[in-house]
């Protein structure tokens, strides 16, 4: 079983609009509401691939109830800790029309303010769930009120039980998480630049050098998602770059989560890194082609997977 952690749960609302007029009125052609948050998206992808998964985290208020109801409807096993504060919503405005020219704007609420008691109850719950897990995925932002090193504590708790952890976070929570010795951290290029502490030079550091800095700080392996340019894996056994054969147009929201789902599968199956990186990159691209975060387009995945090039990086 793969356990996914989403502390800043969300109800994702997607408005599909024609040509957006940012200074006037817009008519929404369709509305989609579904459970969201990065760990929830990972759980959706893993469930669609037929893998046993349990989604956990914090859920509060009517919004939290709506999210849990949607997960149950989707067949995603969920076991969240209830809190008094209201879970957040996110809004995506997606232009209708050909995917090649479609634009998307994402608006994220900060999330509920959580209490020390909320976090203590969740930590106890997490300790019980992790005993039955083969791997843990900790994803997304921390809600207000959570200390910046909270992910580090969760990662260390799992590691003490021999359960490998993937962390997909940004900024201070990611930097602190390194002390929990996660098996994999998965920043994108911008998050990598914010997290890596390197000497100032006249030229920007290579992604591989910045990823190696995160390894030295505590991560066993670092995978950098590079969008249309593929992905980079820096591991104890070597470094590899995945190259996309072509760009996939669509909605990039959730692409990194699908990539993380592929990394989690590779972790529990002990897949060799080149194959692991190829599958994860293909899943990320297939998520771009799907209209909603947490979904992947199976036809795009099957077409792209054999075409993704993997090359060693020195």
TrEMBL record:
The UniProt keywords, alphabetically, are:
ATP-binding, Kinase, Nucleotide-binding, Transferase
List each copy of the Carbohydrate kinase PfkB domain by range: 14-294
The GO molecular function terms of this record are:
ATP binding; phosphofructokinase activity
The Gene Ontology biological process annotation of the record reads: carbohydrate catabolic process; small molecule metabolic process
Could you tell me which Pfam families the record lists for this protein? PfkB
Q: Name one GO cellular component term.
A: cytosol
Which PROSITE patterns is this protein grouped with?
Answer: PFKB_KINASES_1, PFKB_KINASES_2
Question: Do you know which PANTHER family this protein is assigned to?
Answer: 1-PHOSPHOFRUCTOKINASE (PTHR46566:SF5), 1-PHOSPHOFRUCTOKINASE-RELATED (PTHR46566)
**Protein name, per record:** Sugar kinase
The species is: Planotetraspora phitsanulokensis
Q: What lineage does the source organism belong to?
A: Bacteria, Bacillati, Actinomycetota, Actinomycetes, Streptosporangiales
């Amino acid at each position: 079983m793969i356990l996914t952690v989403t502390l800043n749960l969300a109800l994702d609302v997607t408005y599909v609009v024609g040509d957006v007029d940012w200074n006037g009125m817009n008519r929404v052609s369709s509305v989609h509401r579904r459970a969201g948050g990065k760990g929830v998206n990972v759980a959706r992808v893993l469930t669609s691939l037929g893998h046993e998964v349990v989604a956990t985290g914090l859920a509060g208020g009517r919004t939290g109830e709506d999210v849990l109801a949607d997960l149950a409807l989707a067949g995603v096993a969920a076991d969240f800790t209830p809190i008094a504060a209201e879970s957040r919503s996110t809004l995506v405005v997606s232009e209708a029309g050909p995917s090649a020219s479609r634009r998307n704007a994402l608006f994220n609420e900060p999330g509920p303010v959580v209490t020390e008691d909320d976090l203590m109850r969740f930590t106890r719950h997490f300790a019980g769930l992790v005993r039955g897990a083969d791997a843990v995925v900790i994803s997304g932002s921390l809600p207000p009120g959570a200390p910046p090193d909270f992910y580090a504590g969760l990662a260390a708790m799992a590691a003490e039980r021999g359960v490998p952890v993937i962390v997909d976070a940004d900024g201070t929570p990611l930097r602190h998480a390194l002390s929990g010795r996660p098996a994999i951290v998965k920043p994108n290029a911008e998050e990598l630049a914010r997290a890596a502490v390197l000497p100032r030079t006249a030229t920007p550091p290579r992604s591989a050098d910045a990823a190696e800095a995160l390894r030295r700080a505590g991560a066993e392996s670092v995978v950098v998602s590079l969008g249309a340019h593929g992905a980079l894996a820096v591991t104890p056994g070597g470094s590899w770059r995945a190259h996309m054969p072509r760009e996939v147009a669509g909605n990039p929201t959730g692409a990194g989560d699908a990539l993380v789902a592929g990394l989690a599968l590779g972790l529990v199956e002990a897949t060799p890194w080149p194959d692991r990186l190829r599958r994860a990159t293909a899943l990320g691209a297939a998520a771009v082609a799907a209209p909603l975060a947490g979904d992947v387009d199976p036809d795009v995945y099957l077409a792209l997977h054999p075409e993704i090039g993997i090359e060693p990086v020195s």
